[in-house]
Q: What sequence folds into this?
C-alpha cells in the first residue's frame, strides 16, 4: 500500500526520521553522562519505545496509567508515572507492581506522601516515590529550597508503605524561551534546582538515588547535567513545528504528518478544503504569535515539499481551510488529491489516532504500528 491508497485522515510516521531523532538524543544523553528515560506521552507506542530505549536502562516515562498498563502489556517493567498521584489511582499502581513492574510515582505534597505510605502499607506493597521540584515552570512541584522537600522526604522514607526514590523536575517553561541562550539558562536552573533538592535530602539523612530532569528543549541545549542521573524528553522522538520554531529540531526532522485529502475549492477566496480539521490536526495554536506561526499546520505534497506557503488557517471539526502565501496551485490540488500536514504540536495531533502508517522515506507503507490513547 502507498500513501495515496490510504483512507484519510491518517497518521504517517517516517521511520528514517524517527531513527535519526532517537539516535541524536541517545548520543546527547551519553555525552551528558545521564540515562535516557524517554517520555512516551508523545508516541504512546511500544515500537517507538523499544527503539527509544535502546542502549539505555530500558526505563520509560508515562503521563497516564493507561499508558503504563499498555507498556507493561508490551514488556516494559521500569515505568515512571510523571503526574502527581492521587489516592484513587494508587490501587492501579499497586496492580502494576504485582505484575512485576517497577513503578515510580510522583508527589509534591506532604499529606499525599503520608497517604501514599499508608495505602502502601495497607496493600502490602511499597510505592517508590519521587518528590516533584519546581524550578520555574510553576505547574507542579515545590521549590528546591522549601521546607516541604524535607517534610515530604520524611513522610516517604523509613516506613513500610513507601520508599523515597529521589527528585524530579520539569522545565516546561523552556517552551517560552526566545533564544538558545535562554533555554540554556532554564536548563541550568532545572539542573541546579533538582540537584539542590537531592543534596538537601541527603544532608538530612535521606536517600535521593534518582535526580531526574526533563523537556526536549533543555535536553537538547543543556550545557551540563552534573549531579543529574536521568533525563526525560518526549517530543524529540517526532518533533513538530513548534519545536522547530524554538530550535529544538529542524523542520526536516519532523517525523509525523497527517495525510489528508482535498475535498473542495474556494477559488475566489484562494482557499482549498481538506478532510483534516480540528479533530485530525488538533486546535493547538502553540506557534501563534511567533514569527514561525504555522496556523494549524503546514501543508505539503506527498514527499513533504511545501505547497506555495500553504497552511491550515481555520480548523472546523472535520474541515481544514488551507490558504497560501500567494495563489494556491489549484491545478495540482484537484478534489481527491492527497496532501500531508506537518503538525503544530505533535502530541495533540497524534492523540486522535490509534495507529501509525509507517514509511521509510518514500511513499510505501512498510508497517503499521499501534499506539494507545485514553487515561
A:
Amino acid at each position: 500500500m502507498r500513501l495515496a491508497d490510504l483512507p484519510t485522515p491518517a497518521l504517517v510516521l517516517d521511520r528514517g526520521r524517527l531513527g535519526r531523532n532517537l539516535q541524536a538524543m541517545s548520543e546527547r544523553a551519553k555525552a551528558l553522562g545521564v540515562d535516557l528515560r524517554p517520555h512516551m506521552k508523545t508516541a504512546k507506542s511500544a515500537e517507538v519505545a523499544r527503539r527509544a530505549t535502546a542502549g539505555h536502562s530500558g526505563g520509560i516515562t508515562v503521563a497516564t496509567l493507561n499508558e503504563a498498563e499498555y507498556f507493561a502489556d508490551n514488556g516494559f517493567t521500569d515505568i515512571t508515572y510523571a503526574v502527581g498521584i492521587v489516592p484513587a489511582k494508587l490501587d492501579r499502581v499497586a496492580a502494576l507492581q504485582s505484575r512485576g513492574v517497577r513503578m515510580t510515582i510522583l508527589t509534591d505534597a506532604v499529606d499525599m506522601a503520608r497517604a501514599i505510605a499508608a495505602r502502601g502499607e495497607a496493600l502490602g506493597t511499597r510505592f517508590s516515590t519521587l518528590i516533584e521540584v519546581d524550578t520555574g515552570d510553576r505547574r507542579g512541584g515545590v521549590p528546591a529550597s522549601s521546607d516541604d522537600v524535607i517534610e515530604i522526604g520524611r513522610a516517604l522514607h523509613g516506613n513500610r508503605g513507601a520508599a523515597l526514590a529521589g527528585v524530579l523536575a520539569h522545565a516546561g517553561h523552556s517552551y517560552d524561551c526566545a533564544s538558545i541562550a535562554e533555554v540554556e539558562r532554564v536548563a541550568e536552573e532545572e539542573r541546579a534546582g533538582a540537584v539542590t533538592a537531592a543534596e538537601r535530602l541527603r544532608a538530612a539523612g535521606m536517600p535521593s538515588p534518582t535526580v531526574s530532569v526533563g523537556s526536549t528543549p533543555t535536553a537538547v541545549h543543556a550545557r551540563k547535567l552534573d549531579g543529574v542521573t536521568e533525563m526525560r524528553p518526549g517530543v524529540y522522538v517526532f518533533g513538530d513545528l513548534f519545536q522547530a520554531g524554538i530550535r529544538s529540531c529542524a523542520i526536516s526532522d519532523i517525523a509525523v504528518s497527517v495525510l489528508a485529502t482535498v475535498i473542495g475549492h474556494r477559488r475566489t477566496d484562494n482557499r482549498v478544503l481538506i478532510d483534516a480539521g480540528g479533530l485530525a490536526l488538533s486546535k493547538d495554536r502553540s506557534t501563534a504569535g511567533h514569527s514561525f506561526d504555522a496556523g494549524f499546520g503546514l501543508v505539503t505534497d506527498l514527499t513533504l515539499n511545501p505547497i506555495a506557503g500553504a497552511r491550515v488557517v481555520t480548523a472546523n471539526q472535520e474541515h481544514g481551510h488551507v490558504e497560501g502565501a500567494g495563489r494556491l496551485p489549484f491545478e495540482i490540488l484537484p478534489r481527491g488529491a492527497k496532501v500531508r500536514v506537518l503538525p503544530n504540536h505533535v502530541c495533540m495531533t497524534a492523540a486522535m489516532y490509534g495507529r501509525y502508517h509507517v514509511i521509510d522515506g518514500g511513499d510505501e507503507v512498510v508497517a503499521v504500528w499501534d499506539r494507545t490513547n485514553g487515561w
Remarks:
- The chain has eleven helices and 18 strands.
- The chain has a mean pLDDT of 97.
- The first strand starts at residue 10 and ends at 14.
- Residues 180-203 form the longest helix (24 residues).
